[in-house]
TrEMBL record:
Keyword terms of this UniProt record: Coiled coil
Comp. bias (Low complexity): 375-399
UniProt protein name: DH domain-containing protein
Record lineage: Eukaryota, Amoebozoa, Tubulinea, Elardia, Arcellinida
Source organism of the structure: Sexangularia sp. CB-2014
SUPFAM superfamilies: DBL homology domain (DH-domain), TPR-like
Length: 432
């Protein structure tokens, strides 16, 4: 260190061409280096004048440490430090001897002095077996946290000091948080303020939701009127606006499937129907009585049947959903063999998707076509057992006749749409 001092001093002097702050810091570093070198020189001159051999004392203390004679090593190092109190090597050896002797507080004190005196072998500090007991203490972890060069050498995955540093950081964050926490009356005021803010935010959220619900209701009414007027492109645009407000609105996805089928976009219609079912649409009698979706059934065949059957079975397993009396039997039949499709005549088919049901029916049953009511036989049968062959044959004979007598006038539809609200609290259910 003494031999390198002239080079260090010249290098520092070359850097004195910076700003005033840099010049002040460099001057302070030069002053500290001068003072350190002066102390070392004076201690060495005093030791030489007294006839004391510092290198011999270091060798003796190292031999005593290897022999396990920690007390003798401490005594030798004390004598050495009385002559050279700022010797970083002697201070570090004293720290190791104190740690082996069980005095961890004294070891930490001498290690701190050694680092302050210029001891720079940080890798040795992090791996020295003589400091193993000291490294297991919280005081050492705090020293590492404050000494950045020493912290760099404690990065191993299995290094316990690394975990100690993480715990120390967490404890300090907790202490800072506790310092900032209000106490007493201030804490009461703080809680009241937090409660007031929460209530305001909750009221704002409810107001925003009510506003969005109102927009969705109005846009769904416009979409159904556009469907009734056969303006399917405008209906699709309006439904897209609804889905932009709430992408999980299952009723809007159902109507979108009907509109896409009316426009001949059967792949998009099947995707929209799949999305509607995925978001919880379970009104399968609306699917069975929708003319556009029946055309989709004709175009897609097994894909349509498999999709509807899969989600119908899911609803049956959950005990939810609304079905026609033939729905369970149709599902079972599809699972065993493909269902042949027979297109209905024009007198029985309905050209408009969507639906408004009578007041006494389930909310899911209110998704029938705008210009027809749900068939009288479309009662809730989600929990009914699968009918036997005789009951199935009777239902198949009666169901078409009831469908043919289920149309209503356009004035009824306009009145129903004007008095309808679309409440999406339950994932887009439609209620009147």
């Amino acid at each position: 260190r003494i031999c390198k001092y002239p080079l260090l001093l010249s290098d520092l002097r070359k850097k004195l061409q910076g700003s005033e702050a840099e010049m002040a810091s460099l001057s302070q570093a030069i002053t500290q280096t001068d003072a350190m070198v002066k102390v070392v020189n004076e201690s060495q001159r005093a030791a030489a004048a007294a006839g004391y051999d510092a290198s011999r004392a270091m060798r003796e203390s190292a031999a005593a440490m290897r022999a396990g004679e920690h007390a003798r090593a401490i005594a030798t190092l004390k004598e050495l430090l009385s002559m050279q109190p700022e010797d970083p090597g002697a201070l570090y050896m004293m720290a190791t001897a104190k740690s082996e002797d069980g005095d961890q507080a004294g070891s930490l004190d001498f290690l701190t002095k050694a680092l302050a005196a210029g001891y720079g072998n940080f890798a040795n500090v992090a791996q020295d077996p003589h400091l193993a007991q000291l490294r297991a203490t919280d005081a050492y972890v705090e020293l590492v946290a404050e000494t950045k060069p020493l912290k760099v050498h404690h990065v191993g995955a299995d290094d316990p000091v690394r975990k100690g540093l993480q715990d120390l950081q967490f404890r300090r964050q907790v202490e800072k948080a506790r310092e900032k926490m209000p106490q007493g009356e201030e804490l009461v005021r703080y809680k009241e303020e937090m409660r007031r803010r929460y209530e305001e935010q909750l009221a704002e959220a409810e107001a925003r939701k009510a506003e969005v619900d109102a927009q969705i209701n109005n846009k769904l009414k416009d979409a159904i009127l556009s469907i009734y007027k056969k303006d399917f492109r405008r209906a699709r645009t309006t439904l897209r606006e609804v889905l932009a407000l709430r992408a999980t609105h299952k009723t809007a996805w159902f109507h979108m499937a009907c509109v896409e089928a009316e426009l001949g976009r059967f792949s998009d219609a099947l995707d929209a129907l799949r999305t509607s079912l995925h978001h919880g649409f379970e009104t399968f009698n609306a699917i069975e009585t929708s003319a556009p979706l029946q055309r989709l059934r004709t175009e897609k065949g097994a894909l349509f049947e498999r999709l509807v059957a899969e989600y119908r079975l899911r609803s049956l397993n959950k005990g939810t959903g609304t079905f026609t009396s033939l729905a369970p039997a149709r599902t079972a039949a599809f699972m065993t063999a493909p269902r042949p499709h027979t297109p209905r005549s024009k007198s029985n088919s309905v050209s408009r998707p969507g639906a408004i049901a009578e007041e006494g029916e389930d909310e899911d049953a209110q998704l029938q076509q705008p210009h027809k009511r749900a068939p009288a036989s479309s009662s809730l049968a989600s929990s009914d057992p699968v009918p036997d062959d005789a009951a199935l044959a009777s239902a198949q004979a009666v169901a078409p006749r009831r469908r043919r007598s289920s149309s209503v006038s356009s004035n009824d539809i306009l009145h129903l749409v004007d008095s309808t609200t679309f409440d999406d609290d339950d994932d887009g259910e439609l209620s009147s």
